[in-house]
Structures are given as structure tokens and as C-alpha cells.
Amino acid sequence: MSEASLPVLPKTGLAGLTENWRSDLLSGFLVFLIALPLCLGISMASGFPPSAGIITAIIGGMLVSRVSGSFITINGPAAGLIVVVLSAVQELGEGDAMAGYRFALAAIVVASVLQILMGVFKAGRLSSFFPASVIHGMLAAIGIIIMAKQIHVMLGTTPEKGSSLFSTIAQIPHSIMNLNHEIAIIGFTGLAILIIWALLKNPVLKMIPAPLIVVLAGIGLAKYFDLDHEHMYLFLPDAHFLAHHEETVGPKFLVAISDNFMSSFYFPDFSKIATLEFWEAVISISLVGSLESLLSAMAVDKLDPYKRHSNLDRDLTAVGAGNLLAGLIGGLPMIAEIVRSSANVNNGAKTQWANFFHGAFLLLFVVLFPRLIHSIPLAALAALLVFTGFRLASPKSFANVLHIGKEQLFMFVVTIIGVLATDLLIGVAIGITAKFAIHLLRGVRLNNLFKIHFVIKPKDADSVIVSIVGSAIFSNFMSLKTALANLENGKTVIFQLNNAYLIDHTVMEFIHDFQHNYEGHGGKCVFIGMEYHETFSAHPLAVRRMKPGNMSRRKSDHLGL
After folding, report:
1. Cα 514 to Cα 501: distance, rounded to the nearest angstrom
2. Does the pLDDT value for residue 301 go beyond 90?
3. What mean pLDDT comes out for the span 264-271?
4. Is 446-559 CATH 3.40.630.10?
5. Tens of pLDDT along 327-349?
């Protein structure tokens, strides 16, 4: 594709609003329908009041969209942050939910300052340092934790207070045996709708957001079961041969939200800023939030029909600024959220104004219709989160990682076990350590772990040679990434890999993405020396290592670099 044949880019700013307001308004409205129930569910699963997630999405839409470095991403609370935020509330609150909430807000404020500094000092590229399999392992572990906790809410039961994660998982059979039947009907109905919607092929029905159907069905069933009023009922009253099962239902199974949105604002409490637990929360929120946001922004760029590239550092700064404001007035931390952003692309959004409209619709709804939010059952929101958790940790994700290579599955599983047994930060560190160990066992030199050897030189007026010597792995390729980003468009880039000893999956994925983007802007990529390598699976982006017969040549070339 030549530069001339690229689609005309939508305008930005006020000119973009004038040009694209119809498509962006429609997409913003459809994304709002998805965002509302997810914001409520994520907020309560994080140990925050329901309105906290809506506050964040409003800030992310109406303010962050005006300064961010991306084009069609949607900013708001995400399931991936539930685990770190809930952990902060529980650790800092020591049993007092409201105190924990306000301490966690303080941690969000400090974490957001770190995010802003990371953006200002151009740390956006640090996302490359984390191997893909370790990140996927972290997200899968988050999915397992979300499911373990939300299944109980979906069934209308409560696990024992202070339970460890493994204890919470072990109590699932007990919750199934002792479920609250009316609440479980709402939960399972929501889950069934989500599964059916995922299998649908009809494009017209697909335009209706599944979370909206789940919420409407939940509201209808809640009215039918009269959850607005506290009452007891007898399950199977005519089945005298069974033990009668009395159950209580009532407003406690509905979203508790104030009629006055202004009363939803809370302020942070910094009195624990000198404690180790506080700084653990700060680092977790900052690292996981920044990493997820950067990865989501890069993933959405791949979906953009106009092939625009986000300014990741500016985006990180904007998200940090949004989090600073959210933390100061009672909101959750936000990221560039992948599910809502994908829906935004599919709905035909052209500019950041779609993000703005989604935030504006949320603000209007929460101000005008708080009673409608109160009629949403918690079980319907829990069904949304259980489904989200399953997608993060589905058997398909295990199969996809195995397809890339057995060592990728090993790191994936090690990271999951590490996160479940310890916490997110330690689990990710364990996964990265496993990756280093595998590289060393495969012959990567110690002095090559953090330093890459490459040369970029012009071959002629229209082509450039990129020669890689030694190993190109997740922990050393950032300088290569920076150098390639500065190449002029429209040339032929020749990757000379006959002296590359090992190229790991993270770097293979980066080179593949670079080729896709560079050729999309009129250039061309050629690869020389691939035949000297063996791969560890049939996947095109699997780890490549030099065949033993070429080792002696590799050593002499490496010494002569």
C-alpha cells in the first residue's frame, strides 16, 4: 500500500467533532451501554462504592479524551485492576471497608503521580520489557481471582470473612449447594445471555450490547422476585419429602447508590503514607495500571482502520492525570480499556470524541436516573464479571500460548501459580525470572541479557540493512525498537539475521508488528538468514535459535562485530 492510497485521516479537535460527530455520538452511546454495568460491577468487586467506577469513566471520557495521545481508545475502570485495588482496600483498611476505601484513594493519587512522571520521562516503552507470556499469565491469574470471588455473589452467598484466595475457591462447592435460588436464577440467566451472545452470528443482534441485555433481564427478574422489599420465601414449599429451604431476599442484593450524585464524592486519607502496605499498593496500582493501559492502547492501534499510532508516553501522562483527579474525588483508577475500545472501533468511531460522548452519557444517566441504577441486581453484574474473568483465563488462552511454544506455556503457568500463591508483583517477578533462566539454559550470554548488538546502515538510497548479532530478547531490544521507530517511511528494510543466535517470542512479535505497520505506510521488509535458525514450535512467531551447525560462524562473527 502506498502513502497515496492510505485512507484520509479523520480530523482532530473541534474540526474532528464537526466532521465526525454523527459516527462518534452513536459509538459513544453504544459504548456507554456497555460501560455502565461494567463500571458498577468492577467498582463493587474492587471494594469501592458503585458510583466510584462511574466517576472514573466520566473523567476518562470527558477530560482524559481531550489530552490523551490515542485516537479511539475508551478510558475507564478495568477488570484487570480489581485485584490490586481490592487488595489495597483490605490490607489498608484492616477490616474497616470505608477506611480502606479512603486509604486506597490516597494510594491511587500517589500512583497517578508516578504514572504522570513515567509519561513525562518517556517510560511508555518499558511495557516492552515484560514478556508476552508473563503478561498473559498475569491476566489469566486475575481472571481466575475475579471468577473465584464473583461466583459467590452470582449465587447469592458469602464466603467466610478473611478467607484466603484458595479458601474462597474451595468454598465454591459449598456455595453451589447452599445457593440463594432467586439470586442464582438472576446470575445464571445473565451468564446464559452472555454465552449465547458470544455465539451469535447475526450482525444486527450483535449491535445490541450483551451487558445491556443482562442488566435489563436482571432488572425484570428483580422486579418479579420483589427484591425491592426484604422478605423470606420457602423454596419448593410443596416438596414435603425435601427439607424446606427458607431464604431471605431484599434490597441488599441490589446496587446501593445515592439519589444525589454529588454525595458520591469521597476524599483520600493519607495517614498511612509512611507504611509499607501503602507503598505496596502504590507500586501495584501504578505498575499494573500503566502496563495494562499501554498494552491496551497498542492493541487498539492494531484495530484502527486508519492505522494511526498512539503516542504512548502522552497517553500514559493523560491517564495518570485522570487517575489523579479520580483518586482525589473518590474514583477508581482507569486504563485504556480493551473491550470497550474494541466495541468503539466496531461501532465506527473515528476520533476521541466517541470517548468524550461515552463519558457525557454516563454523567447524564447517573444524574437523571439513579433509581434505575439502584434496581440493577448485584448477581447480574457478577455474571458480567465471571464471564470477563473466564475470557481472561479460558482454556483457549492456554491453547494459544502452547501453540507458540512449550516454554511459553511453562512461563504462563508459572506466572499464574506465582500470582495466585503470592500477589501480582511477586507473581510477575517469578514469571520474568523463569524467562531469564530459560534463556540462560538455551545459551544466551550473561552480557547479552540486557545489551543487544545490532547495526543499522544504508545499503543504497532506497534500502537499509538491520543486522542483529547475538541474542535479541525481551530484556534487551528496547534500543532496537527505538532505532527502528526513527527509520524513514517508504524504504526497503532488510533484516539480516544470519548472525542472530536467538530471537525470543517478544522480539518476533515486535518485528512482525513493525513489518505490518511499516508496509502499511508504503515501505517493505525483507528477512535474510531465517534458514539458519530452528524454531521451538510451528507458530510463525515462535522462539528462533541458531542451528548447531552454524554456531562456529556465529562466534567468529560475534567477535568481529
Report:
1. 21
2. no
3. 96
4. no
5. 999 999 999 999 899 999 999 99
Assess contact for 268 and 100: CB atoms under 8 A. no
Q: Could you report the per-residue pLDDT of 21-38, keeping only the tens digit for each?
A: 999 999 999 999 999 999
Q: Identify each DSSP E strand in 487-559 by its residue range.
A: 492-496, 500-503, 524-528, 533-535, 544-546
For the chain, give the longest Cα–Cα distance: 90
Contact 94, 41 (CB under 8 A): no
State the Cα–Cα distance between residues 184 and 39, nearest whole angstrom: 22
Average pLDDT, the chain: 90
Cα–Cα distance measured from residue 302 to residue 391, given in angstroms and rounded to the nearest whole number = 20
* 12: helix, strand or coil: coil
Element (H, E) at 484: helix 478-485
List, for residues 415-465, the tens digit of each pLDDT value.
Answer: 999 999 988 889 999 999 999 999 999 999 999 999 999 999 999 989 999
Using a 10 angstrom Cβ sphere, with 0-12 exposed, 13-18 middle and 19 or more buried, the burial of residue 258 is: middle
Q: Which of 497, 444, 449 is nearest to 469 (CA)?
A: 497
CA distance 79 to 425: 17
> Cα 211 to the chain's mean position, in Å?
18
Contact 424, 130 (CB under 8 A): no
Alpha helices in 233-331 (DSSP H): 276-303, 312-329
pTM: 0.90
Question: Which residue is it, cell 465506527?
Answer: 348
Residue 466 has φ and ψ, to the nearest 5°, of -110, 105
What 3-state class would DSSP assign to 472?
strand
C-beta separation of 329 from 266 below 8 A: yes
Between CA 79 and CA 390 the distance in angstroms is: 12
Please give the distance of CA 517 from its chain centroid, rounded to a whole number. 23
Instruction: Say yes or no to pLDDT of 557 above 70.
Output: no
Residue 409 to residue 38: CA distance in whole angstroms? 30
Residue pair 323/112 in contact (Cβ under 8 Å)? The answer is yes
Which phi-psi region, left, alpha or beta, contains residue 443 (left: φ > 0; alpha: ψ -120 to 50)? left
**C-alpha separations of 452 from 444, 482, 501 in Å:** 11, 12, 11
Residue in the structure block whose three cell numbers are 483498611: 93
**Beta-strand pair 335-337/74-76:** antiparallel
Domain ranges of the chain: 14-390, 395-441, 446-559
Amino acid at 537: S
Output the pLDDT for position 237: 56
Mean pLDDT across 216-235: 88
The label of the residue with cell 466495541 reads 343
pLDDT reported for residue 130: 85
Per-residue pLDDT, 3: 45
Residue 550 has pLDDT above 90, yes or no: no
